[in-house]
Write a structure and sequence with these properties.
Layout: H1 12-17, E1 19-21, E2 27-30, E3 51-53, E4 74-76, E5 97-99, E6 122-124, E7 145-147, H2 158-161, E8 168-170, H3 178-185, H4 204-221
Parallel strand pairs: 2-3, 3-4, 4-5, 5-6, 6-7, 7-8
Antiparallel strand pairs: 1-2
Length: about 250
């Protein structure tokens, strides 16, 4: 007779044996791919860990007792069956990595307390059921990477797009209007600063370097005329992106 999905029972002994030391010396509890259906209460006795990996299980709910993990810096909950997150997650002030990708989260069930994670640097919300992004996420001033791919978003609030330290925003495969697709393809503006000075403000050596470079440029401009035949760049017609979509791309090494 087939058994129902009760999931594997995690004991304190199993949990202790699943603790590993991360590259920076932190204690990481890895309970990924264990067939867990409910949050293991026994791990509350290991609340002094630095990293917690519960990814690739079948967990539907994270209890408010998650707030006991006050030292937690890294929390991976991706690829479960989560439909909501507790507001208590906002108490994890040391958290810099949060992956809740590939769940069943809706915008309505994202807690407002997410905007309290002031030290968060990486947030992955991809592969969920989000139809909008809370503007409150704009309070996460330390955020460097955010994944919003594979949702049902039609826009991204400016408060998120203009986060001061944001370097990577993945919003691929969302039903953005045609007029905004180009805008969301690369929302991070990269500005190269150009400093202009007068010749009198340069020292002799710097001035000579600038003059030499200018002379070289003038020689190139006044040199052999370009061929009449239009140059061909076949290699530029092929995709050259090295982006990867796997989950490991979002794990901070």
């Amino acid at each position: 007779k087939a058994k129902g999905q009760k999931g594997k029972k995690i004991t304190l002994k199993i949990a202790k044996n699943s603790i590993r030391i991360s590259s920076d010396g932190g204690r990481r509890l890895d309970l990924s791919k264990m067939g867990i259906t409910t949050f293991p209460k026994c791990i509350l006795k290991l609340a002094d860990i630095d990293e917690l990996d519960l990814s690739r299980n079948m967990i539907k709910k994270i209890p408010s007792s998650i707030q006991k993990f006050q030292k937690l810096r890294w929390l991976d909950l991706h690829s479960n069956k989560l439909e909501e997150l507790p507001g208590a997650i906002g108490t994890l002030q040391n958290l810099f990595y949060l992956n809740i990708c590939n769940n069943k989260l809706t915008t309505k069930n994202l807690p407002e307390e997410l905007n309290l994670l002031k030290n968060l640097r990486i947030l992955n919300l991809g592969l969920n059921c989000l139809d909008s992004i809370p503007t409150g996420l704009g309070a996460l001033k330390e955020l460097k990477e955010i994944g919003l791919f594979d949702n049902t978003l039609t826009t991204i609030p400016n408060s998120v797009k203009k986060l001061p330290k944001l370097k990577k925003l993945n919003a691929e495969r969302n039903p953005f209007p045609d007029s905004t697709k180009k805008e969301h393809a690369d929302t991070i503006k990269r500005i190269q600063t150009l400093y202009l000075v007068q010749e009198k403000d340069l020292c002799c050596s710097c001035l000579k370097v600038c003059q030499d470079e200018r002379d070289k440029l003038n020689k190139l401009k006044n040199g052999t005329p370009s061929p009449s035949k239009k140059p061909s760049f076949p290699l530029l017609l092929t995709p050259n992106s090295f982006a990867k979509d796997n989950q490991e791309e979002w794990r901070l090494r």
